[in-house]
Amino acid sequence: MKFIPKKQKFKKQQKGKNLNKIGPLFLLNNLKFGSIGLKSINSSRLKSHQLESIFRSIKKIIKKTGKITLKVFPQTPITKKPIEVRMGKGKGNIDHWISKINAGTIICEVESKFIIKAKKAISLAQIRLPFKTKIIYEK
To answer: FRET pair for 36, CA 20 to 30 Å: which of 13, 48, 91, 109?
Structure first.
């Protein structure tokens, strides 16, 4: 898989605080690399395979006419115990990687000559996400 960290200091982590209580990030809420972006409305978790499906769906339409920039990366490991295993005996193995998304964070940006194509690509990526998002434009 493409969206997995290569190296981390510790293999397993704790999940962290509840995302609904955290306010919006102001560092990742402006367009810098593209003319059209996808902004989250709710705070949620974004799995690595969801991020990969977003990237592929945009790339399928944009092809070589534009550039895709992903502003989030999954760095938090989520562990899970195997089925039918009794409680105890330590923490489970890493199941998947997530990225914690706060409300107002821009997930990806697209720079393209053809704005209609870019808008169509972003709208297809919007379908593949488990939380509410909106398309934003450069002013």
So the answer is: 48
pLDDT tens track for 73-119: 999 999 999 999 999 999 999 999 999 888 888 999 999 999 999 99
Specify the pairing of strand 76-80 against strand 106-112: unpaired
Q: Is 106 helix (H, G, I), strand (E, B) or coil?
A: strand
- Residues 132, 103 contacting (CB under 8 angstroms): no
Q: Which amino acid is at 56?
A: R
CB–CB of 41/118 below 8 Å? no
pTM above 0.90, yes or no: no
Q: Which comes out higher in pLDDT, residue 27 or 12?
A: 12
Number of Cβ atoms within 10 Å of the Cβ of 116: 8
DSSP letters for 88-119: -SS--EEEEEEEEE-TT-EEEEEEES-HHHHH
CATH number of 23-79+90-137: 3.90.1170.10
Please state the domain extents for the chain.
23-79+90-137
